[in-house]
Write a structure and sequence with these properties.
This protein has 331 residues and is of the alpha/beta class. Helices cover 20% and strands 25% of the residues. The chain has eight helices and 19 strands. Strands 5-2-1-6-7-9-10 form a seven-stranded mixed β-sheet. Strands 12, 13, 16, 17, 18 and 19 form a six-stranded antiparallel β-sheet that branches. A hairpin with a 2-residue loop joins strand 12 and strand 13. The longest helix is centred in the middle third of the chain and has 19 residues.
Length: 331
């Protein structure tokens, strides 16, 4: 069994820490990000990794340099949240569990970027850590398909479990059995952290792109100047003739055709199920199924629609001062 230090912070790192402990490895120290204020309260809250370590009786610090005196044989890094400098790596070799098939999606948001890009397959790599951004040689990897409707939190949880299995398997023979690893081959792509502005839905984009953004879990649009989070949505093709702008026509409240511009809401009766539809830039419909208005709890989108009582042709994401609603009430 190996004598280890573990560096990690979010929920996604917890399965690897627990798997190492359950496999009998001696985790002498855990390094995690400092306690932070979360939510509206002023109370400092420990990271999920710190909480798990304390529950298992493992010492925890938020000072990275503490690893230098810990007497470990190897450092294990899983979603720690900071780059480890070369000066530390010169003293202690480290491996990293990364949630992508390197060299694709090096960086902070590999799961989100894979979903946004429409990747069909992703995976986990165990690599030797270098000072560069996810550039180290790969010791082991495992692939998995991305579900057509799988959300970023769901995929992250699956990859976290897969990474924990990969890590424990690689360390069965101890640190000496790891080997040098294989250099990464192929074109590198980079997974920059998701900027909050990227989460705003652009209804001019194709329906598939809109739904992929929704699958990240934090996408939003606006409605009469207020933010409206879209929590669950699917894509539906539309039958019928195209409107003047190339978008498919959608029946309005009185059964009259509406030249459907991107962002136009489609009543639940026409939108299908308990949700409502929104016309996307390619003329297809995004069926919105769950939403959350500012200051409210999540609710089914059909109920929200009936309470909001949109006007015929009123568009989500439109500035009311620029694009006033068309007269008439959708029912």
């Amino acid at each position: 069994m190996a004598r280890l230090v573990f560096l990690g912070t979010p929920d996604a790192a917890v399965p690897s820490l627990l798997a190492l402990l359950d496999a009998g490895h001696d985790v002498v120290l855990v390094v995690s990000q400092p306690d932070r204020r979360r939510g509206r309260g002023a109370t400092l809250v420990p990271s999920p990794v710190k909480k798990a370590a304390v529950e298992r009786g493992v010492p925890v610090t938020d000072q990275l340099l503490d690893v230098l005196g810990a007497g470990a044989d190897l450092g294990v890094v899983v979603a720690y949240g900071r780059l480890v400098p070369q000066s530390v790596l010169d003293d202690l070799a480290m491996v990293n569990v990364h949630f992508s098939l390197l060299p694709r999606w090096r960086g902070a948001a590999p799961v989100e970027r894979a979903i946004l890009a429409g990747d069909a397959v992703t995976g986990v790599c165990l690599m030797r850590l270098e000072a560069g951004l996810d550039t180290g040689p790969v010791l082991a990897r495992a692939e998995t398909a991305i579900g057509a409707e799988e959300t970023a939190p769901e995929l992250t949880a699956r990859l976290a479990g897969l990474g924990a299995e990969l890590l424990v398997s690689a360390l069965v023979g101890g640190v000496a059995s790891l080997g040098p690893g294989e250099p990464q081959a192929g074109e590198a792509t980079y997974a920059a952290k998701i900027d909050p502005d990227e989460l705003r839905i652009d209804w001019e984009r194709p329906a598939e792109a809109v739904v992929r953004l929704v699958r990240l879990g934090r996408a939003f649009t606006t409605w009469r100047g207020q933010r409206l989070r879209v929590l669950h949505a699917t894509v539906r093709d539309v039958d019928g003739a195209a409107g003047a702008d190339g978008a498919a026509n959608v029946d309005g409240a009185a059964g009259e055709p509406v030249g459907a511009r991107p962002g136009t809401g489609v009543p639940p009766a026409a939108g299908g199920g308990a949700g409502f539809g929104v016309v996307a830039g390619d003329g297809r419909i995004v069926d919105v199924l769950t939403v959350q208005a500012e200051g409210r709890r999540p609710t089914d989108a059909g109920s929200w629609w009936r309470g909001a009582r949109p006007a015929v042709g009123e568009r989500l994401g439109a500035d009311p001062a620029v694009a006033p609603p068309i007269a008439g009430s959708a029912r």
